[in-house]
Amino acid sequence: MKVSAVKYLVVFAIQVKNLLEYKINIYLKLIRPIIMVAAVGALWLVLFKVTGRDSIGGFTRKSFIIYLLVIRYIAVFSPGGASITEMNEEIRTGDITMRLVKPMHYMVWLFARNLPIPLVSGIAGLLMVTLLAWFFGAPVPTGWSGVLFCLSVTAAIITQYAFYQGLGILSFWIYDVFPIERFYKAVSGLLSGELIPLTIFGAAAQSILQFLPFASLAFIPGGIYVGLFPFSKAIILVVSQFIWAGFFWILVLWSYNRGLKKFEAQGG
Amino acid sequence: MEAFFKMLRILPDYVRLAIRRETEYKAGFYTYLVHQTVTLLIWLIFWRAILNRIGDFGNWDFPLMLLLTGFSTISMGLWMTFSTIWRLPREILRGDLNNYLIKPVHPFVHFVFRRLNLRSLPRILLGAGTITYGLYFYKIPWSGMSLFLAGTISVLSFLTAFLPFALICLTAFWIGRAEFLRDLFGELFVFQNYPISEFPNLFIYVFTFIFPLIFSATAPVLVLTKLTVGQSWAILALMVVIIVIQLLIFGFLWKRGLRRYESFGG
Q1: Which terminus of chain A has fewer CB atoms gathered within 10 Å of its CB, N or C?
Q2: pLDDT given at position B252
């Protein structure tokens, strides 16, 4: 058991070393979400100004910007995006066979390989958001809310990664998964609260959307950070996040085994 | 001039190649079409949800937002058709431009047309359909001239967005890794979908003269629904001047960049 964990740690360590070779990339990756938030945040600040409102959908100006930053860095945290491209390329060219003959689990290897960049940028990003929030006097979760927030972010990352792995696994059946990835991003952008917080929708739509798996990716952790939910409701939402995460991982592992069987049946 | 006609002669060949590439993987084409339709619908839901919550966005109500989404869809469809520009920094860095330099055709034209993304063309039709629906369903008054001017600005706006982006990609000749700069710049494209005329003056100036995204959707909607014919012609004239300046800058930097690239031996 120890030996098998060590080999993935070695892959992880090599990737960290590669990452440190190009330090400028880390800094640049940290800046990108700020530009993205500036672009989306500008619209909302103009909306606040034009309508003369103090809050829209339960968000003030400050809490809205902090919400946008939090959800953007959670998205940065997930190592999924790079792994879809890699998986798609390796499956359609057949290069995956080179990995499969080695004494390791392909998906764990992929995870160890793609983890360093999101881990570094995600942690640094969330620290930066907390500092910004503190500086601007915006809400920062502390105590049990802080614990819930960390759990919520963990569940969000696990679910996001499951979605991305699921899309990558589709490569066993579909030649080019890129359009499906784009489709997924468009839909999840709206339903996860990344484009607009779910509180902007009507009460009926909101009560359904917040328990869908997409809300787990952005709206729930972002909402907990800015204190949008009462504590008891936040607990229920975090539990629902973990239930969805477990469900999707079971689905992903089942699909991976099915895909692998199909791949082997065709002779690799 | 001869080079220009030569370029025109080979364009159909590029298109034929692109069609062949698209028909090879039909599933990808249809999935992309679904994705484009869903993206359009998402923007409409986005504006509907916001306007339901806050009322009009300044001078913009939902019918105008519908037209805005239609025009930005057209512009993005055209842009995506030539989205191969995204690869330029990487090809410069890896020395892949050598393949184009030895061909008897303008290397940039060959680079851009070699990988036409015809999957994005239906997006243009979707945008046009959305505008037609908006004009008909919400009974928005319009004239033939205003529609002609709005359409012309919308189609030409592709160049005002494409050329600054291409200029950013050209920086790879000097700084090597320009991907980050390119990606950062790419984030600004979201402003195409916003009614920029409601933003503070600083934004209006930036998106008119530096990264002219105002012509993609905001200007066509205003030309179609609010501005006089004279004002609309003035906007079109300004846009043409901006395009000419952009082309001159691009041509100058392309030549300088290529000289630098060749002096390093590719």
Answers
A1: N
A2: 93
